[in-house]
Write a structure and sequence with these properties.
This protein is of the alpha/beta class. The chain has one domain (about 5-245): Aldolase class I (TIM Barrel), CATH 3.20.20.70. The chain is built from twelve helices and eight strands. An eight-stranded parallel β-barrel has the order 1-2-3-4-5-6-7-8, surrounded by five helices. α1 (about 15-30) packs parallel to α12, α5 (about 105-115) packs across α7 and α7 crosses α9. The longest helix is centred in the C-terminal third of the chain and has 19 residues, at about 180-195. 2-phosphoglycolic acid binds near residues 171, 233, 234 and 235.
Length: about 250
């Protein structure tokens, strides 16, 4: 069976000192968590968080990666650079990057390939907007985004990545997909993976739900058979809330 994976997406929050304080709070509470645990922090916090989590069950993640190995890309970071400071996971194609920073399905795919080849585990985000769901396009959108994101990867590479289904209308809004909606759409994503890479790969790949996941709704969502974890924004910024999400099985 797939091991659950809960990742915090801190977005543009926390200075290094604040980051260190947050993970230091978290460590004792989550030390017996049954799931894999990642905190995707701002780049300026990598070092502080890496030192604080050394020897614990918390893994370090980034929020973006460039697709080139090096070169004239002002402001960007390569997979090799991220690996060098202890980053293991990287969020790619978050809807905020698609909305505000011109991220497209093509650049998402380039970043996913660079991450995998560079030894990072991508957490690739897909998800429909509100009007797309209302018009009945959800399945088509997530299937298309999934196919695009995975282009050029082998089945073995796909088995080891993480996909996050994040309906855009549920991110930071307090609106959550119902347990059934999240389960159903993640099933659509898994069947898309199966058509491309076969049943074994689809059965292995972990697919998270993200969008206003919190201590109040985590149990219901995690009880769904297709949902393998969560990508947590707001609730990952408070140690008690993130702890309750991570310990969803208690
Ligand atoms: P949220 O964010 O939990 O604050 O809705 C989730 C995300 O953007 O990954």
């Amino acid at each position: 069976m797939r091991k659950a994976i809960i990742a915090g997406n801190w977005k543009m929050n926390k200075t290094p000192d604040e980051a260190k304080a947050l993970v230091t709070d978290l460590i004792p509470w989550v030390k017996d968590a049954a799931c894999d645990m990642v905190v995707c922090v701002p780049a300026v916090c990598f070092q502080a968080v890496k030192e604080a989590v050394r020897g614990t069950n918390i893994h370090l993640g980034a929020q973006n990666v460039h697709f080139a190995e090096k070169g004239a890309y002002t402001g960007e970071l390569s997979a090799e650079m991220l690996r060098a400071v202890g980053v293991e996971y990287v969020i790619i194609g978050h809807s905020e990057r698609r909305q505000y920073f011109g991220e497209t399905d093509i650049t998402v795919n380039k970043r996913v390939r660079a991450a995998v080849r560079g030894g990072l585990t991508p957490i690739v985000c897909v998800g429909e907007k509100k009007d797309e769901r209302e018009a009945g396009y959800t399945d088509a959108i997530v299937e298309y985004q999934t196919r695009m994101a995975l282009t050029g990867l082998s089945a073995d590479e796909v088995k080891n990545i993480v996909i996050a289904y994040e309906p855009v209308w549920a991110i930071g809004t307090g609106l959550t997909a119902t347990d059934g909606q999240a389960n159903e759409t993640i099933g659509v994503i898994r069947r898309a993976v199966a058509r491309l890479y076969g049943e074994d790969t689809a059965a292995a790949v972990r697919i998270q739900y993200g969008g206003s996941m919190n201590p109040g709704n985590v149990k219901g969502l995690m009880a769904q058979p297709e949902i393998d974890g969560g990508l947590i924004g707001g609730a990952s910024l408070k140690a008690p809330d993130f702890t309750q999400v991570v310990l969803f099985d208690r």
